[in-house]
Amino acid sequence: MKRITQLVALVTLTTLLAVGGGTAASARGTAAVSANPSTVAVNETTTITATGLGGLEDAFFGLAGSPGGLLSTQSGGAGSTDVSSPATDGQATAYFRATQAGTFTVAVGDGETVLGTVSVTVSGSAPQPTATSQSPIIEVDSSLVVGQKTQVEAKVDGLQTVGFGLDSADGGSFSDGGSTGPSITTAVTDGTATVEFTPARAGSVTIALSDGETVLASAVVQVAAAPATPSATPTPSATPSASPTPAPVADSAPVLPWILLVVAILVIAGLIVWLVVSRRRGSGARRNGPTAD
């Protein structure tokens, strides 16, 4: 029940942000929200802290407008555009990992009202880790088509399991042969974790790698819409060829024996008539012979 309540609260917070309800006006007061550091580079993480939450049990963190990254909490998860974090002594914390340059707003709410916001500036791109570094790396095709399966490989050291997640649940699904879903946890073998990813919608999809507490790495995949398949339409064109008129010719084949039978009957009838006439003529000639003497 608590999980359902949290999901409803996250949706409410996202809706408030979308309609511009980001003013921190609440009967419970406002919260002070800070980002440390407030400026990061792509693929770097900043800590978002909300204080002055009073007796709030759970604080809801969300990204307004263009996400620009992923949020995660210490409770685990590969990252999402909105998360719930438990509040202790009026304070709650989340982590924002940037995936693109720009200025992005992180809002904190109580599930009904936005209590405070903070802006995070993401500058340029962080140096990409090399294969020999200790930083986790995600290897995946950067261009895919909806429904096209591809392998996602994560290079990570010192972990037995890692989590794969998406910036939105409708972006697609992962599979490791044992479990399937928009976020899964899989084993690391010899420093490598491998899953299969199938995109479900066109657009930009962010794949995130997590250790259960923090987003370790991310990769952006551009997904194109699946091409239309006109192969279904040619099948009707095959139907005209299936209706050739020679079919009646096959039905007319049995008529020939009947024609031959009729002709034979007529010939036999003609022979019978001829025999009858011949006999009558012969008998008439015999009768006329003796009278002549």
Automatic annotation (TrEMBL):
Q: Which residues form the signal peptide?
A: 1-24
| Alphabetically ordered keywords of this record | Membrane, Signal, Transmembrane, Transmembrane helix
Region (Disordered) residue ranges read: 229-248
**Ranges that cross the membrane:** 255-277
> In terms of domain of life, where is this protein from?
Bacteria
What is this protein's name? Ig-like domain (Group 3)
